Amino acid sequence: MALNKFNMPKISNKGQQMPESPIRKLVPFAENAKKKGHKVYHLNIGQPDIKTPEVALNAVKNADIKVLEYSHSAGFESYRTKLSSYYKNHGLPIEPSEIIITTGGSEALLFALGSTMDAGDEIIIPEPFYANYNGFATASGVKVVPVISTIEEGFALPPITSFEKLITPKTKAILICNPGNPTGYLYSKDEILQLAEIVKKHDLFLIADEVYREFTYDGHKHFSVMNVPGIEQNAIMIDSVSKRYSMCGARIGCIVSKNKELMNTAMKFAQARLSPPTYAQIASEAALETPQSYFDDVIHEYKERRDTLIEGLNKIEGVKVAVPKGAFYCIAKLPVKSADDFAKWLLDSYENNGETVMVAPAAGFYSSPNVGLDEIRIAYVLKREDLIRSVEILKDALEKYNML
Ligand SMILES: Cc1ncc(COP(=O)(O)O)c(C=O)c1O
């Protein structure tokens, strides 16, 4: 092995460029706060406290397995068949052969990038976006080209002309997250149709991360890229059981497309990693039996949490927030210069009756430098009493921080 001048094997440039999670970098500060005996309300991560459907957990408990085998690389056929019925019942015309089961939506995103882009190619993503898109793009040698959506516009789709200005011969795809993490924005049918027009016109893929599809509020309906006639060859949908059934630890998702060549390509990536996890597929297949009442209750719960949070935030002077129409996140603009510094200070130097909150500074959700510096992302995955207390703490903390 070639050794560098310090006689150390050399880490790859790609590895050095891999971004750290902007959320997890605050973890040591939270650990310190906890060591001091402080209670930390976690508004920083999308780990729901909602119970996983029993039918999914029981399926694993009752599974009588003698050999924990690999499954088919595309996932159990029985699971793909039931998943296809689930999608059809939700108005999405998806066949089992158009689905590959993956290890979380995360692996589906990697397969999507791997199958559509070469090193140096460009992907246009409205920002702020799910921070791990940066990591997946770096791992794939792909350049993220951001198009900025703003809190002033409620994070609506930027004008189509803003996308067209960014398209170069290296642009291979547009990636959207709908409903959005971190914005909670839900693209309208009209916005999706506008995107469909551009991808058709420029022969691009349209990758839609729809892992929060079920979480929409106020009667708003989710409109999938799989429902747009004429972009069957362009559309790729990313899905996951993580949030739908509060099964983040199962690590099951899927990549879906009607483009056969794309799916054959994604299948080669799937074969290279052999198979998605077996027990987790058993749980995910059983989860499809979850009654509608579970979702009605969960959506009702999230809507209440959202309303509680937004009402509380709106009462804090200087805070501006775009009301989320879906998912369980919102971006709030704070009356501070550096949300990063404020977030650290909350953990490091502040407490309110032995309690504090952990938030995610939003700059990590932008790839443009120096944007969103005064914004945070809040995940409303805690119960209402905790959200009320968290807002109380934030209000008090902002007052104290701004007097420093
Ligand atoms: C927008 C979005 N996409 C994809 C994922 C990845 O989810 P998983 O790999 O757990 O399916 C997440 C997780 O938080 C997410 O928020």
Verbal overview:
Helix content is 37%, strand content 15%. The protein is globular. It has 404 residues and is of the alpha/beta class. It folds into 2 domains: 147 residues, Aspartate Aminotransferase, domain 1; 234 residues, Type I PLP-dependent aspartate aminotransferase-like (Major domain) (Aspartate Aminotransferase, domain 2, 3-Layer(aba) Sandwich), CATH 3.40.640.10. The strands form 3 sheets. The protein has a 7-stranded mixed β-sheet, sandwiched between helices. Strands 9-10-13-12 form a 4-stranded antiparallel β-sheet. Strands 1-11 form a two-stranded parallel ribbon. It starts with 12 loop residues before the first helix and ends with a helix. The protein has 13 helices and 13 strands. The site of pyridoxal-5'-phosphate has 13 residues, from helix 5.
Biggest sheet architecture: 7 strands, mixed
Radius of gyration: 22 Å
Q: How many helices in DSSP terms? A: 13
Question: What proportion strand?
Answer: 15-25%
CATH superfamily of the largest domain: Type I PLP-dependent aspartate aminotransferase-like (Major domain)
**Mean pLDDT, as a whole number?**
95
Molecules bound to protein: pyridoxal-5'-phosphate
How many separate structural domains? 2
